[in-house]
Structure formats: structure tokens, C-alpha cells
Amino acid sequence: MGMKIVLLKTIGDLDLKENKDTIITFFEDPNEDVAKQAVNSAKKMKLAEATNPLLEKVKKEDFTKNSNSLSLYISTLADLPDGKVAAPFLETKFREKFNNADMRGQIALYFGTVLYTEAESALMEVAFDEIQPTTLRCYSMNTLGKLKSETAKPKLYELLDSLKKTAGKLDAKKAQSLKIYAIGALVTMGDKEVFQELNEFARDDDSMVRLRAIEFMGSLKDPKALELLEYKRDRDPSPKVQKAAKKAIDQINGKESPIEEEKSIEEKPEEEPK
Predict the structure, then answer these.
(1) Which end of the chain is more exposed for a tag (fewer CB within 10 A), N or C?
(2) Residue range(s) defining the domain that contains residue 248
(3) pLDDT tens digits, 218-253
(4) Which residues contact 104 (CB under 8 A, 6 or more apart)?
(5) What is the model's pLDDT at position 256?
(6) Dihedral of CA 173/179/184/185: which sign?
(7) 110 and 130, same domain (yes or no)
(8) What does each C-alpha distance from 239 to 89, 235, 264 come to in angstroms?
(9) Which residue intervals are annotated with compositional bias (Basic and acidic residues) in the record (predicted)?
(10) Which DSSP category does 29 fall into?
């Protein structure tokens, strides 16, 4: 087993595409770790031939359970050529509310990577449903931003307004995640009105919300933000926020490359208490 894993990893690292059939064969290895490494290698090599076999493997998985393997398979489909072919099947699984929330969250991110606009209504239903898990809502908002959803835009502003009105009443971690992802979606859409929201949230009591708002300001490169960013660089009580403000100033002044697009989902949102 260990030798299989090492060899599969080496094939992927060296991009030995002449071994693509062997890699795909190992998708069905009875050992889960071997199968996962085969999928990882196919992902690294971006094997177009792996798309349909991997989709068939995914169709046999149990979506009602949290599974690291299934998460890998879904993220790999998002990165493979023609991986969008899996979208109709995954949309069905996403709409089934009895399926595991983490798996549905991975599917939401998949939709954003392959830009599957047909899932907009399903994502809207989840993103603005208060009884849905926070992480799932956040990932759905993230994807709505990538899909440039005009339908979601007013709902995102309504959510932000609601969060302002309920400040202090909602669980802090839940509120933090919803604020960050709602603003991030609007920034990704390129909405011109989002600057005012960023201006407000750059003064939020939560230092993480301030930090993310400032990072988004940097990515927008709007000179109107410089005065506030300079104040935050010099006066904000959080050293991390001060550092982010300095970086944002450099970005606006053309001295540094933009923050990566996926920055907003590097850290998984905190779930509300059970």
C-alpha cells in the first residue's frame, strides 16, 4: 500500500501522463488512501480522461456523511478539464437538504469554480436561509459573488443591514463570518456601492471584520480609501489590521500585487453554537 501511494505521488509530481490509465484504474482501489492519492495525482496532472471515471466514483458515495475523500473528489472535479459535466448531478445532491452540510458546502464551492450559473436559485435559497449552517451559507454567498448574481445583490445588502441592526444579539462568530462573506461576494461582483459598506465595516468592533474589509479595499484599489487606510495603519489597536492597511495602501499605489481572489475562504467560517 505504501509503495503504491509513493509511486502514484511520483507519477503526479513528474507529470508522467503516459501512466494516466494506471492512475485512473487506482480510483477504484479498495484502500481509500491509495484511491485518494490516485485522485490527487489526476488533479495535479489535470487529466481530462479522469473526469468521467471520477464522476462515476462520486455517484457511488454517501453524501449524507462528512467525508474527506468525497470533499477531495468534488474539488478535483472542479479542477479537471470538463469537470462541469458533474454539475447537474451535484446540483441534485446540493438541493437535498438531508445531505451533510459540509458536503453541500463543497458542492457550493465547486459551482463557483466551474461557474455553474444554473445553480443560482439553489444557492440563493441556502445563502439567505437563517436556519442553514453558517459555513454552508457563507460558501453559497461566495459562489453567488463569483457568478455575478444580480439577483443576490439586494439580498446581500439586506443581510448586511440586518447584521447591523442585530449587532450584539447574534453569536459573534456567526455574525463575523456572515459579514465577511457578504461583503466579499459584493466585492467579487465589482459592485460600486460596496465601498460604503467597506467603510463602515473597517470600523467594526471585530478586528477580523476590520481586517477583511481593509483587504477588500486594497483589492478594489479605490484611492478614496487612502485616508481611512492611513488612519488604520497608524491608529488601529490591532497590529494585524495595521499591517493589512499598509499592504492595502501599497496595492492602491501600485506597489504590490493584488490579494489572491480566494483569500476570503482560506479560513473556514465558525459555526454557530449547537
Answers:
(1) C
(2) 124-274
(3) 988 889 899 999 999 999 999 999 999 999 999 999
(4) 63, 93, 94, 126, 136
(5) 66
(6) positive
(7) no
(8) 46, 9, 20
(9) 257-274
(10) -
Dist. CA 126–CA 95, nearest whole Å? 9
C-alpha to C-alpha distance for 77 and 42, rounded to whole angstroms: 10
Q: Which residues in 199-210 are b (16+ Cβ under 10 Å) and which e?
A: eebbebebebbb
How distant, in Å, are the alpha carbons of 14, 80, 120, 135 from that of 76?
18, 6, 21, 20
Domain termination residue (choose one: 87, 114, 141): 114
Contacts of 264 (CB under 8 A, 6+ apart): 142, 180, 181, 184, 212
Whole-number CA gyration radius for the chain:
21
Nearest CA to 58 among 97, 107, 127, 18?
A: 107
Same domain, 22 and 139: no
Q: How far apart are CA 109 and CA 35, in angstroms?
A: 22
Total domains, the chain: 2
| Tens digits of residue pLDDT in 213-224 | 999 999 888 898
Q: Which three cell numbers stand for residue 119?
A: 445553480
In a domain, 119, yes or no: no
Is 147 found in the same domain as 110?
Answer: no
235: exposed, middle or buried (C-beta count within 10 Å: 0-12, 13-18, 19+)?
A: exposed
Query: pLDDT exceeding 90 applies to what percent of the chain?
Result: 79
**Assigned C-alpha cell, 151:** 439577483
Q: Is the pLDDT of residue 79 over 50?
A: yes
Here the CATH number for the domain that contains residue 136 is: 1.25.10
